[in-house]
Each structure stands twice: as C-alpha cells, then as structure tokens.
Write a structure and sequence with these properties.
Arc Repressor Mutant, subunit A, Tetracycline Repressor, domain 2, 234 residues, single chain, 2 domains
C-alpha cells in the first residue's frame, strides 16, 4: 500500500474515529463487536457468522451490514478490541517488564483462544489495539540500549514463544489419547533417537503436576536468558 492509497475502512474508523454509524434498533458497532467476541470466545471462530451474530443480537442480518461491512472488517474490529491494554512498562527493569508483557499475552490468548487463529490469518497488525501491545514490548527494552532491530527481534521471539506455548496448552491431547510419556516409551528406539530417549528416561515429559503455567515461565526464562546475553554484549 502506498501513502496515496486510502486506508481500509476498518483502519480508518479505528485510527481516525470516523463518523458515528446510524443506529438501528439500538445497534452500534461497539455492541456488535462485543457480541462477536462473546460468540467467538464461547463457540470458536469457526462458529462466527453474520447470521449467528444477528440471532444473538436479535436483529436482521442486513442490520449488521449498516455498521460492519463484512466479516473481515468485523475480525479487525475484534482483534483491536479483545485484548486488554498492555501492562505498564517498567523501563528500569527490562526483564521483569518483558515477563509481565509475555504473561499478559498468555492471559489474553487463554481468554480469547480465537485470537491465535485470527492473527495468523490477518497478517501483521496495523490497528491500535494490537500495536499498543507491540509498542509496550519494545518499550520494555528501552533501557537495554539494544539496536531497534534487535529490540524487535527480541520481542517477536517472545511473542512467537507465547503463541506456541498457548497453542499447545489450549489444544492439548484428546481425553481418550494414551498417556504421552508411556506412548513414547513404547515406540522410541534409543539407537535411532538417543537424545529424545534420554529426555524421556529423565522424565521430562512426565506431567505429574500438570502446571503448564510453570512450564511456560521456565521456557520464558530460558528465552530471556538469551536476550540477557545479547544485552550484556552491548
């Protein structure tokens, strides 16, 4: 997109607070977006349609289109609205600030699991809601004196780690699936996969405590150790 091209209508509304839409039976964009988020939270993104949303709001489907042009535009409004504001950034303690940022995202994705799927399809964020989180992540590294490119690389590494950890935690294994460590012990050939066999033998896949948040925090600490080494070299 060049600077001469107009912004997509949804971004125009989100950034420039376009003219208020005409109310129809008490409808407005905010109410429609809130209902869409509730529907996606409860039933998943695949269940979200303009027809089901109209049923939930007890209105005609065409009434929705007076406020939201299409489902893609609705998703952009949802992605900008669903996350809470990012945590306040402590710019004197970058590690603590980035930990709070990552844990805040962990909470957002668990409250709104559909966001993972929607962001993957939507591409790089350009709305104020998501960019507020990116800005907070970069601001957390302000005191490190890292180059701006390195700050972005660090924040994106943490972001991808959080998304991957949440996806594994949410999806999990089916209730009728065999216990994973026991399954690995049955199928693994130590001669073929010696490192993995050693990990299984050490019990790293045993999930006795089932504390996924603790596992997440442990992995996050290791990632932050790598960023810390980069900061130290500066």
């Amino acid at each position: 997109m060049t600077t001469d091209e107009p912004l997509p209508r949804a971004l125009e509304i989100l950034w420039r607070d376009g003219p208020a839409t005409r109310r129809t039976r008490g409808l407005n964009r905010e109410r429609i977006v809130a209902a869409a988020i509730e529907l996606a939270d409860s039933d998943g993104l695949a269940a979200l349609s303009m027809g089901r949303l109209a049923e939930r709001l007890k209105c005609g489907t065409m009434s929705l289109y007076r406020h939201v042009a299409n489902k893609d535009e609705l998703l952009m409004f949802m992605l900008s609205t669903a996350p809470d504001p990012p945590p306040n950034t402590n710019r004197t303690n970058w590690r603590g600030a980035l930990t709070d940022w990552a844990c805040g995202l962990w909470d957002v994705y668990h409250r709104h699991p559909w966001v993972l799927q929607a962001t993957a399809a939507a591409g790089p964020p350009a709305d104020p809601g998501q960019l507020a989180w990116l800005d907070a992540g970069l601001a957390a590294l302000e005191a490190t004196e890292l180059a701006e490119r390195d700050k972005l690389a660090a924040v994106m590494a943490v972001l991808h780690f959080v998304r991957g950890a949440v996806a594994l935690d949410i999806e999990g294994a089916p209730d009728d699936a065999p216990e994973y460590p026991a399954l690995l012990r049955r199928v693994l050939d130590p001669a073929r996969f010696p490192a993995l066999a050693a990990a299984v033998e050490a019990g790293v896949f045993d999930d006795a405590n089932d504390d996924h948040l603790a596992e997440f925090r442990s992995g996050l600490d290791q990632l932050l150790d790598g960023i810390d080494a980069k900061v130290g070299r500066r």
